[in-house]
Write a structure and sequence with these properties.
The chain is of the alpha/beta class. It has a domain at 20-88: Immunoglobulin-like (Sandwich). Helices cover 17% and strands 45% of the residues. The strands form two sheets. Strands 1, 4, 7 and 8 form a four-stranded mixed sheet that branches. A hairpin with a 3-residue loop joins strand 2 (40-44) and strand 3. The protein starts with a helix and ends with a strand.
Length: 102
């Protein structure tokens, strides 16, 4: 009986993990390649928002499997968007370069 419980508990956990994934990336200056700190990163259609760190990194965890649009904004830069498909049980990288306004 204990073995059956362990198998069921383990299989449920694994199945649950496969329905969610992580999306991460680096926001950088298109010209210099330098990371951009404090850029606002919005994920649609989830409506989740985060801010890039000093190293330009951002991350969204526990995302449902679907296609998302990542929109990045920062004063002095043009808004940039990227469409990304989040795959079951995998981490997906979406680096976003930004171009300075002229």
């Amino acid at each position: 009986m204990l073995t059956l419980f362990f198998v069921l508990a383990t299989s449920c956990s694994k199945t649950e993990e496969n329905f969610y994934s992580t999306l991460f990336g680096i926001v950088s200056d298109n010209e210099t390649g330098n990371p951009i700190n404090a850029a606002t990163v919005v994920l649609s259609p989830s409506g989740k928002t985060t801010v890039s760190g000093a190293d330009g990194r951002y991350e969204f965890k526990d995302l449902e499997i679907m296609q998302y649009t990542v929109t990045v904004q920062k004063a002095g830069y043009l808004t940039n968007r990227k469409t990304v498909t989040v795959v079951s049980g995998e981490s997906v990288q979406a680096d976003i370069p930004m171009t300075k306004e002229k």
